Amino acid sequence: MDTVQQILYGFGVALQPINLLFCFLGAVAGTLVGVLPGLGPTAAMAMLLPVTFGIPPTGAVIMLAGIYYGAQYGGSTTSILVNIPGEAASVVTCLDGYQMARQGRAGPALGISAFGSFIAGTIGVLALSFVAPPLVDAALSFGPPEYFALVCLGLTVLTFLAHGSMIKALMMAVFGLFLGTVGIDPITGVQRFTFGRMDLMEGIGMVQIAMGMFGIAEILSNIEQTIKISVFEAKLKGLFPNLEDWKRSIGAILRGTGIGFFLGILPGGGAIISSFASYAVEKRVSKHPEKFGTGVIEGVAAPESANNAAAQGAFIPMITLGIPSNVVMALLLGALMIHGITPGPLLMTQHPDLFWGFITSMYIGNLMLLVLNLPLIPMWVRFLKVPYPILFPFILLFCLIGVYTINNNVFDIYLMIFFGIFGYLVRKLHFEAAPLILAVVLGPMMEKALRQSLTMSKGDFSIFFTRPISAVLLGVAILLLALPMIPRASTREKIGKLEEGK
Amino acid sequence: MLLLRDSGNFSRNSKRKELMKTDQFNGVLFLIISILICFGSIRFPYGNVHNPGPGFLPFWLGVVLGLLSIVLLIRSTLQRKETMFFRQFLTEKIRWGKVLITVVALILYGVLMEYVGFLLLTFLFMACLMRFVDPQSWKRVIGWALVGSVGSYLIFEVWMKLRLPKGFLGV
Predict the structure, then answer these.
(1) Are A173 and A158 contacting, i.e. CB atoms less than 8 angstroms apart?
(2) What's the complex ipTM?
């Protein structure tokens, strides 16, 4: 089969020593940020983005992807040992993972989450490599109206799934779209909202905003209160789950993989939602749902598998359509664009080495993580003991260096600080940052598609509804926008309950 | 990425008269922003519906943002449920001072970077944050600040050749 041949070709690329090195660096860095609470994969990727400018695009993507799925592995360690989620997708793992640690079963809990992650990650990558090519074929027939509809749908789903008020999430998305219009208009050359500043002519970079709103803002809200981390002091022994553990978790792992992968594909979905959903499902199918929360191994296996599978699924819309489904994908997209590569349906044919090398590097990365994670857990625990007052200046420093080296321009530092303060304040006012960042990335794409479509149709808006694909996509988007207005029966409430694990 | 914290302090001082709910404040704030956006964008060519110009999208984004802000404002005004009041946002037990120190340190870093130079400024920056935000012992502060500044200098300047700014010391 053709796909098999291309996968083999991909391995040829991914197994080159230099790419193996990037894969390894990404996986290690990802595990580290996953372990450390107060530093998530988004901030880490934003920080390392400038570093990737100097390396070939394939290596850059391999490394950034490694950070993303590596963080899913690392996050579980902190959840289990400290009862603080190392990153957001591991929140549910705390419930049963920490209880297991208190019962002296930290070893099997860490073990099953590493194996579960590995199984889910591998199945996810396999599914990805077979789902992507047919999707690419379909996407090749997309014109500007379809892209416009797709961007609208992506933004709607993201706001639909946002925590808290949907109106506020929409406001963030609209404001993000506005920020995306700053700079020289690509079609007419008119300067918009630049206040005559040279620095703003090329627009406000996504990296500056992301580092501000995820890096700086995160740290500001962490130092506003005293944080004490107490690592669970217990001898770690027997990382390998026993036969009984396996029997109870294998179903959970497979179900978690399925749920995670499909929720991951959805724009706006991803690791966090899928870990909650899979936990809820496990509780429902379990013969002893009342024991959840007291340290059952399924409660660790399911969400940890789901968040890894979701991490793989989330790559699908990005590499096939060029539409990022979450902030991490948006950063990856940004990295590719800086290298002059536009992700989209043409990526597979124009840059097969990048496309397949990247996919297969994730098989290899998953294996590396399994080998890396289990024996190195004691070392990660030592990192957890570095006090936050020592740690946070380091994180700030990396943000500063990272943002400065994009253009060697101090103005970028000010932009980052501005968005850091902005991000911190809107967070305090219960807004979410994710829709804003995604909108900044998608905004220019959306405006271009909108204006091209209207030129195509000579100004007739019906073009969006007479073409079947864009009509369906926009229909779904409108449906999602209308749903919360139906009182009481709102799906959002159900999702909210799901997330609370009820 | 996420630290669990207690956020259940809603309507703590419900007996006192509250000026404003948080979402009322949010609504007003973003309404003002949206008006600014609209006024800003009418200066650019609008084009027409059939051939939108550079002012088209920003203007309508401003309008949509304004409408959303009004909906938020009305909804939070009508809402009877227990909600968060704006004054709590201001008086919440937050270590504003620490946040302020950090922000000032960041801004100063940007301002002084090209005069003081990377190595010295980084050392001072890290030492200040470690000493003044959550005070650590001087021994620890100097040790870690040295590790941070020299280490990052070696990695970024010497190894990766990123050309960080040199100040009056030449490093």
Answers:
(1) yes
(2) 0.84
The DSSP letter of residue A199 is G
Cα dihedral A98, A102, A103, A108 sign: positive
Amino acid at A328: V
For chain A, give the mean pLDDT: 82
Mutation target to probe the B interface, by most B beta carbons within 10 A, among A175, A227, A230 is A175
3-state secondary structure A420-443: HHHHHHHHHCCCCCHHHHHHHHHH
Q: Is A431 on the interface with B (CB under 8 A)?
A: yes
Dihedral pair phi/psi, residue A396, rounded to 5°: -60, -40
Side-chain half-sphere exposure of A55, counting CA atoms within 13 A? 19
Which amino acid is present at B86?
F
HSE at residue A312, side-chain half, CA atoms within 13 A, is: 35
Closest among A337, A303, A304, A340 to A322, alpha carbons compared = A337
Query: Mutate which of A159, A400, A411, A460 to test chain B, going by most B C-beta atoms within 10 A?
Result: A400
Spatial contact of B80 and B21, defined as CB atoms under 8 Å apart: no
CA distance A324 to A314: 8
Q: How many Å is the Cα radius of gyration of chain A?
A: 22
Dihedral angle computed from the Cα positions of residues A341, A342, A345 and A349, in that order, rounded to the nearest 10 degrees: -20
Residue linked to tokens 């519906």: B49
Contacts of B23 in chain A (CB under 8 A): 165, 168, 430
Please state the φ and ψ torsions of residue B137, each to the nearest 5 degrees.
-65, 150
Helix (H, G, I), strand (E, B) or coil at B84: coil
**What pLDDT digit, counting tens, does each position of A449-485 carry?**
888 888 888 878 888 888 888 898 899 888 888 876 6
Domain ranges of chain B: 22-91, 96-159
Alpha-carbon distances of A157 from A151, A169, A323, B28, rounded to whole Å: 10, 11, 13, 26
User: Which residues, 6+ apart, have CB-to-CB distance to B100 below 8 Å?
Assistant: none
CB contact under 8 Å between B3 and A167, yes or no, is no
Average pLDDT over residues A208-229: 80
pLDDT tens for each residue of B40-56 = 888 888 777 677 778 88
Gyration radius of chain B over CA positions: 24
Could you tell me if A264 and A312 are in contact, meaning their C-beta atoms sit under 8 angstroms apart?
yes
pLDDT tier at A237, thresholds 50, 70, 90 = low
Question: pLDDT (tens digit, 9 = 90+) per residue, A7-63?
Answer: 888 888 888 888 999 999 999 888 888 887 767 777 788 777 777 777 888 898 899
Q: Please give the structure tokens belonging to residue A342.
A: 């536009």
The answer to whether residues A327 and A42 touch, using CB atoms and an 8 Å cutoff, is yes
Q: Which two tokens stand for residue A250?
A: 């294998």
Q: How many CB pairs under 8 A join A and B?
A: 189
Whether A174 and B140 lie within 8 Å, measured CB to CB: no
